[in-house]
Amino acid sequence: MRHRGQGRPACRVAGRPDSPGRSHVGWTWDPRSRLGLQGLVALVVLAGLLMVSGGLVLVWRLDRQRSASQAAPVPSAVPFVSSSPTSTTIPLVSPSVELPQAGSMATLPVTVPPMTLTARPVVTDRVPSDDALRVQVAQMPLADKIGQMMMVQFDGQRLAESADLAALVSTYHVGGLVLLEANAHDPQQVAQLVDEVQRLAAQSGSQVPLFVSINHEGGNVVRISQGVTGFPGNMAIAATGRPEYAYAAAAMAAQELRAMGITMNLAPVLDVNDNPLNPVIGVRSFGESPDQVTLFGRETIKGFQQNGVMAVAKHFPGHGSTAVDSHVGLPTVNKTAAQLEQVELAPFRMAVTEGVEGIMTAHLVVPALETTPGLPASMSRAVVTGVLRQRMGFEGIILSDSLGMGAIAQGWGQPQAAVRAVQAGTDIVLASGPLETTTAMWNALVAAVQRGEISAGQIDASVMRILRAKHRYGLFENGLSGNLSVVGSAEHQAAADEMALAAVTLFRDQAGLVPLPGSARRLLVLSPSELPPAQDGGGTMLAQLLRDNGLEVAELIFDLDQLSSREAVYAQTVKAASGYDLILFGEWELLKRSANQSDHWQESLIAALLKSGKQVLMVVWRDPGAILLVPQVPTCLVAYGTTSAQVKAVAKVLIGQAMPQGHLPLTLVLPGH
After folding, report:
1. What's the start-to-end Cα distance of the chain, in Å?
2. Per-residue model confidence (pLDDT) at position 12
3. Residues known to be catalytic
4. Which CATH class is domain 505-638?
5. Contact 40/58 with Cβ under 8 angstroms?
6. Angle 623-627-630 (CA atoms, 0-180°, nearest 5)?
7. Class of the 130-486 domain?
8. Whole-number percent of the chain with pLDDT over 90
9. Which of 157, 217, 623, 658 could form a disulfide with 652 if both were Cys (CB 3.0 to 4.6 A apart)?
């Protein structure tokens, strides 16, 4: 059964007067609006009724003040100018809103209080005309144009640490960077790195600023390890039933990214995850319903772009139904054209309509759209140009997924794949690997144009799109970092905590273990090493929180990548289980490891625990589809991620300080049900 909260507080994102020159997000209520006046009248009338009946609840709806999203230009982000708007906390209640629901249990309509978050960046009017852009492009040599069409990875956290990075920027004039974990440690370091490379680009021959991009989807798919706010990921946000959380999380994340000088987020994921055993998408998706993915995806795109960060929707034409991870192999989507239109393509049509800046193509085979056997969508002109550019009318930037992924590297190699992707209509290819690989791609693209295999006109059109976006987001004026005080702020962390708590989902509780019963005082907690550490240095944050609330906790932490750790934890668990009232097992990437590596260690340990006769409660820290691989577990609590906010939320639910309020955005059909 599912539990519903009784009055969830609304997430608050306040303006920051201590952050000059930045955009602000805050609650606003315009009493001049039609619904605002109706609400005021309703307040007076219903207040009288409340005094008479003693039981009526005031319900009014607040309009979203999203004027920025209806303006034709896209907001500039640097420099920001803001009057530091104040924000007023007012009651947020609304009529029930029917959202697309899924899951193995019956659900009730969700009451969604809309959050009136208003982004207030300055909308730039400094984008050059097409004629001016043509002149700028015409003055660029072919080598520089090809450089602009490449976004690259690199080693190191400082420019001085990477001769490759210096060469890519100053000699090859690449158009952008992709930051990975190896490049991003904390906000101060990232800001310094961004400033160094942007200044180098300004001093280089092309004098064109860089896109600085990152995978910052939320949840566990982030690249900066310290100092930023850990917002829940897409499926967790969808589990709350509150699309305004999607806007708020994206808006606040964008403020933090732009403060560090990051101008492009390779998000959101718009894949419809209608295969619960999908090993690569899972919690990165908003769920199995195209309507729900569209609803939450729209708010996410607005949140990013209204706060100065370009959104890149992915993975076109849809990766949600696959059973193969494209990082290790080439998946196939075996659906009809009609099915693709109704499911996979629906969220991307929304993204095009909403003016998303970029769309990333996927390395997968879609026979209904491309008749050449084995040709990935990312290299298919029928898909990239025919469907996305022509039929759907997308005018923004088309990016490939990383050409270093297994789906491509095993069959084509990056230089050949880059040529095929650009021939298909791609504007930017994502390079992966050492300098030699990247320069080989650059040389292959230059040669393909010189041989006439790619038209000069197509190259010019791509570079125009790239330069237009760089002008639109203010990169030619100031692409440097800004005031870092917003990054990881208390306001943002409080919002993340609230979202994570609203997402926790009790899938089932046949044993009545949530909240923990009074008889379960001695716990054996098995935790993956991915959980945040305890502040006191003793184990994980989860174990510390449980101990702080009076429980006797013994914790065993397993590292799934270390055989010795797995063997030791397995042996100790089986030996010690009988001495505890309850076993709390923390699942981690069970589904992905089972599919990609045939790794069934977690399933084996769970089976041994259940065989011992001890009560077992499983916390699903990653993909809820993992439940299908261990259907015998009687109690399953789904967290959707291991950020500090999500760990705190799970602890609160376990000790009874909060009820699980989330709704599973997937349908899981267990044996016998």
Report:
1. 14
2. 35
3. 327, 401
4. alpha beta
5. no
6. 135
7. alpha beta
8. 74
9. 658
